[in-house]
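Anyone able to model this chain together with S-adenosyl-L-homocysteine?
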Amino acid sequence: MKTHTSRTGTLVVVGIGPGAADLITPRARLAIVQAEVIAGYRTYLDLITDLLRPEQEILASSMMQEVDRCRGALALAENGRNVALICGGDPGIYAMAGLVYELVKESNSTCHIDIIPGIAALNACAAVLGAPLMHDFAAISLSDLMTPWPLIEKRLQAAAAADFVTVLYNPKSGRRIQQIVRAQEIMLEHRAPATPVGIVSGAGRAHESVRLTNLEQMLQEEIGMQTTVIIGNSSTFVWQDKMVTPRGYANKYDLGAEKVSG
Ligand code: SAH
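re: yes, here you go
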């Protein structure tokens, strides 16, 4: 019989979705319930308090401590503990899965890593808006804390010119207020002012707000840290308060042919 002698534990990087309890996957729930230690940003831990057990050790951290948070979680897993590192949305989208692998690579750790996917903000926001991501899209974070702004502008230019539906993550914070203004300017160089824009804040949370506007007027809406902005492509339309990007079925299957042919 094979006995398990290694004391190395597991670090599970868990995506808890946008915030609603019923948008946490069963696999993520199980990982949280089974973990001995739960680490994460305080705001995300507050979203899962119902799942936590008194005997679990909680390592709450504040926003700018990502590297320490990951290192701490990894060190505990290396000492044989089963640790869940909690991320909002999906752990591999502007979250901690990549950082964990970078740290493991750097330290030659033998720790076992598991990534559990979550419903990303772009999924949750698209669903409440209608179906804006039905064709090719680009996600761009406007945060220049770690990415140089000229590179972000280059990507905005490329996405705008190639007519990608464009999802803007981290559009604005208390201190970063100019980036969204510049993003709008770049988009307007390539797209009509009437292009539909969906703005969703706090998707799946108690204070969820969903707004439909257009490229010209989008800055009149309140945009903050918990907001995702989705800018349509040149075919995106609004129908009965829903934002829809056609996939092209109308051309292929003659949807509404009676109107067109008449
Ligand atoms: N890992 C997350 C993204 C984290 S980056 C994911 O997969 O979605 C943080 C940014 O995500 C925020 O600035 C905002 O743009 C977006 N975001 C996160 N949660 C959101 C929510 N509930 N509603 C709308 N946008 C959200």
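The domain at 10-119 is CATH 3.40.1010.10 (Cobalt-precorrin-4 Transmethylase; domain 1).
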